């Protein structure tokens, strides 16, 4: 099972995400880095474990208030050959073009912002994030209801559980995974530590997006080795 660390960036600073309440995200304090500079955080994460990918959310781009492109490009170069999964509020494939020069960047199309759903099937690197609030799906309902729109990799993202230490929404994950066929499905939101990740692994998760548990030391290098099958 792959563990994918998450870095949320706002105004050039890595922030701590809690329950999807973006306006109140505070700068990240972590023992893995001396500062909340996103590049420092990425380097600190890679010293914890040789992660195969890091997920980066550009909150300014998602909210259409600018972007953190320079900082994210530096992270991509620093962690290579590991992949950088990038959610920058892409509405369609044209907006991904600026990132094509970085070979290790995979675009994450969040259902919350995606407008051109046909683009998913045309991009072999595309990752679709099916975004949920506490009770409802965020985005065009067809993206959730019609599996023909789904690319080879999916994320089941429960925003209300991000950083909230409530545990993952396993039933919602099951619902998507049961319809996903051979696609790789990752879970995001709520994982508190090794036990939660083992539950997701048993449920068939190819991976899980994690932040708080890493920064609070509730996922140790030994735990990560177990999940990676080392």
UniProtKB/TrEMBL annotation:
InterPro entries reported for this sequence: Aldolase_TIM, His_biosynth, Isoase_HisA-like, RibuloseP-bd_barrel
GO molecular function, one term: 1-(5-phosphoribosyl)-5-[(5-phosphoribosylamino)methylideneamino]imidazole-4-carboxamide isomerase activity
Pfam families assigned: His_biosynth (PF00977)
Any one of the GO BP annotations: L-tryptophan biosynthetic process
Listed GO CC annotations: cytoplasm
Alphabetic keyword roster: Amino-acid biosynthesis, Histidine biosynthesis
Name of the protein described by the UniProt record: Conserved protein
